[in-house]
Design brief:
The chain is an all-alpha fold and 78 residues long. The chain contains four helices and no strands.
Length: 78
C-alpha cells in the first residue's frame, strides 16, 4: 500500500465520514458545502502535482478513507 501525506489521508477520511452522514441526513447544506470543499482539497492536493493519480492510487486513498469512517457530529457542533 502506498503512503499518503497525513493531511491528504485526513481529508479523505473526513470526506468519507461526511458522505455517509449526508446519506443518512440528506439536505443539510452545511454538510454538502464541507463535502465540496474536501473534494477540491483531495483532488487538487499537492501530492498529485507530479501527475494525476492512477485509478489504483485513487482506490487505495478511498479505501484508506473508508477505514477511518466515524461521526462528524462534534465538528458540526462547533
Amino acid at each position: 500500500m502506498r503512503s499518503f501525506p497525513d493531511d491528504l489521508a485526513r481529508a479523505q477520511r473526513e470526506w468519507s465520514a461526511i458522505y455517509h452522514e449526508l446519506a443518512e441526513r440528506p439536505g443539510h447544506t452545511e454538510l454538502r458545502r464541507r463535502l465540496h470543499q474536501l473534494s477540491a482539497q483531495v483532488f487538487f492536493h499537492p501530492h498529485w502535482q507530479r501527475g494525476r493519480p492512477h485509478p489504483a492510487e485513487w482506490r487505495e486513498l478511498r479505501d484508506l478513507g473508508r477505514s477511518g469512517i466515524g461521526t462528524v457530529s462534534e465538528r458540526l457542533e462547533r
